[in-house]
Amino acid sequence: MNKLLMIVVTSLLLAGCAPTATQTENAKLRQAYSTCIIKAEGSPDKVASCQTILDVLKQEQEHKQFAEQETVRVVDYQRCLTARKTGDGQAYAADCGKIWQEIRSNNSPKPAN
């Protein structure tokens, strides 16, 4: 009886540690966003299409802070590109490049430890 009880308790504890379908789906959404950003290569239209993934990530508590910070970066990048087109392109080119590098580095694959 004790062995059976111990097996049941151990099973329940291990099941609690296993990632749920929602966690797996959220991780896939985060990966999809990172892939979208990497493939966008700075193109304003492609970057804007990545925004829909961020909107979904904002709804998940686990990724809400990341999604909100990333939204600010993307909006800053889009504003920079608009200013670059309408104003002094050379003056904004470096700034836009810095913002884009920040977005890319935040979404690059992390090296395995």
TrEMBL record:
InterPro entries: YbfN-like. Residues 1-20 form the signal peptide. This is Lipoprotein. It comes from Rahnella sikkimica. Keywords: Signal. Pfam families: YbfN.
